[in-house]
């Protein structure tokens, strides 16, 4: 099995409905730090000082791990752990919260997005084919009108010629 690459993209905090983090100290704001873990791989955000609602808009992280390295634990293989911590300058950081995200859900979402893109492309091509077919029909109708008009002109000229010929004979 190939390695998997998971990405926390720019602006995900906005999309994921990030809310203000709880205050951990009575006298100061928390200094949030987020850790992403997948298998043996781990990535940390920057520590934001004195804020409750930092927006990680310009941060991007790649988690690359090989599920074969963690064969024994199926749960770890299929989850990404996101841990929010309160950064302490001295001592161990305090954990504010932890959530595990099912990697299968991410893979299914990516597949769904790919299918949607393919369906949109197929729909675009179908509309293009229909447009070309209608355009060809319009061109055929226009050509038929031109042909009919030309035949009508020739018929009128023939009738006029017969009339003139008859008039000329009579006079």
UniProtKB/TrEMBL annotation:
<dbReference type="InterPro" id="IPR035892">
    <property type="entry name" value="C2_domain_sf"/>
</dbReference>
<feature type="domain" description="C2">
    <location>
        <begin position="1"/>
        <end position="116"/>
    </location>
</feature>
<feature type="coiled-coil region">
    <location>
        <begin position="106"/>
        <end position="161"/>
    </location>
</feature>
<feature type="compositionally biased region" description="Basic residues">
    <location>
        <begin position="1"/>
        <end position="10"/>
    </location>
</feature>
<protein>
    <recommendedName>
        <fullName>C2 domain-containing protein</fullName>
    </recommendedName>
</protein>
<dbReference type="InterPro" id="IPR000008">
    <property type="entry name" value="C2_dom"/>
</dbReference>
<feature type="region of interest" description="Disordered">
    <location>
        <begin position="1"/>
        <end position="44"/>
    </location>
</feature>
<keyword id="KW-0175">Coiled coil</keyword>
<dbReference type="Pfam" id="PF00168">
    <property type="entry name" value="C2"/>
</dbReference>
<feature type="compositionally biased region" description="Basic and acidic residues">
    <location>
        <begin position="20"/>
        <end position="31"/>
    </location>
</feature>
């Amino acid at each position: 099995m190939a390695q998997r690459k998971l990405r926390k993209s720019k602006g995900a905090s906005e999309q994921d409905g990030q809310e203000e983090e709880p205050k951990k100290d009575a006298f100061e704001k928390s200094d949030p730090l987020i850790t992403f873990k997948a298998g043996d791989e781990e990535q940390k955000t920057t520590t934001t000082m004195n804020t409750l609602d930092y927006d990680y808009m310009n941060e991007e992280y790649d988690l690359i791990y090989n599920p074969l390295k963690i064969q024994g634990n199926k749960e770890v293989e299929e989850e990404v752990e996101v841990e929010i911590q309160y950064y302490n300058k001295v001592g161990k950081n305090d954990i504010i919260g932890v959530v595990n995200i099912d990697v299968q859900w991410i893979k299914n979402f990516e597949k769904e997005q790919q299918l949607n893109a393919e369906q949109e492309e197929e729909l675009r091509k179908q509309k293009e084919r229909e447009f070309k077919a209608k355009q060809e029909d319009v061109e055929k109708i226009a050509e038929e009108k031109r042909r009919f008009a030309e035949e009508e002109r020739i018929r009128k000229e023939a009738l006029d010629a017969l009339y003139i010929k008859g008039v000329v004979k009579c006079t």
